[in-house]
Sequence to fold (194 residues):
Amino acid sequence: MNPRIAFVAAPLLTMAYGVIRILDGLDGSRGPGLAWTTGHLAFLGALTMFVVTFVHMRRMAGSNTLSTVSATIGIVGILSLSAQFVIDMIVGFLSADHAAMGVHFERIQAVPGVLFAVYTVVPVFFFIGQFALATQLAVQRRVKAWTSVLVLLDCVVPNLDKDLMPLGALFLLVAFIPLAGLVSRTAGPAPVAA
Fold:
């Protein structure tokens, strides 16, 4: 896959999820149903694209220890979020209505470690890794400082209000456009650490 596609697709798929999520909530509740499933599939697609972006951002940052740790932390967060979204989809398939979803979620989240690993703490690693990689690229002057600021806004804004997810995704798209250009110039093999 051309990595430039991932740098555009990841924020666009995130935006699609955000818009579908808003539309799904217009009736006062979210899920189960087609919008719930479609939105979750869009975000799972985004997470797949984010793995590609993290790998290439690590490469653009020099594949050093710091960029490797940052990418690894981010990918662990991606795996956690992927588990969350797969669980959400399964709950949607198993539930007749929104109230039934709540019962299933309570049971799942009551399992020791699930809340920590899939819903509250480990998913944040995704945002930490992404911001760390963008900041490393800005410090190295591979991208402008505003790139990491926009990535930070994408990390913060949707966590203030999930209905702002499309706006956060727009920030990320603007931040990722220079990275898409940079990745095309550095798409060769990763540098070998000395």
Remarks:
- The chain has a mean pLDDT of 94.
- Helices lie at 3-24, 34-60, 65-94, 98-109, 114-120, 124-139, 145-160, 165-185.
- The two ends are 29 Å apart (CA to CA).
